[in-house]
Amino acid sequence: MLVKDIMSKNLITVNEDDTIKKAAELMRQYDIGILPVLKDGNITGVITDRDIVTRGVSQRDDVCSINVCDCMSKSTVCANPDQDVSAAARSMAAQQVRRVPVVENGCLCGILSLGDISKNGCDAEVAQAMCEISKP
Fold first, then answer.
1. Helix, strand, coil % (nearest 5) of the chain?
2. Of 86, 79, 70, 78, which is closest to residue 127 (Cα–Cα)?
3. For residue range 83-106, what is the model confidence (pLDDT) as tens digits?
4. How far is 126 from 28, CA to CA, in rounded Å?
5. What phi, psi does 19 have (nearest 5°)?
6. Can you tell me the distance from the alpha carbon of 136 to that of 52, in angstroms, rounded to the nearest whole number?
7. What is the pTM for the complete model shown?
8. How far apart are CA 34 and CA 127, in angstroms?
9. Which member of 42, 78, 129, 133 has the greatest number of CB atoms within 10 A?
């Protein structure tokens, strides 16, 4: 099974100069925990609900003025749409992440989550990834 067969294709994104308040509102509105971050249409990282809390809310008093670029994860693990799901799961496990952007030729085309992998019958890959992700 390939990543493109199971990835989420409905993408909600933010720009680096958007506020974390806007990012949090989008996460609440769409019931998601990760947003790809774009600059001039190119992916530069991701911001997660955890990033907002640990790098934003817990660090500053005026959270409404904090930009996404101040809290986002810049070093992002990505998957390729033509990659085997098992290989993507191993990469996610090695990097201890639950969700990754899917990028083809530099363009964002989806998001792959452990939930996507699990829903599509790849329970062994999810179990292994969760074991690796949960290590301190």
1. 45, 25, 30
2. 86
3. 999 899 888 888 888 899 999 988
4. 25
5. -85, 160
6. 21
7. 0.82
8. 21
9. 129
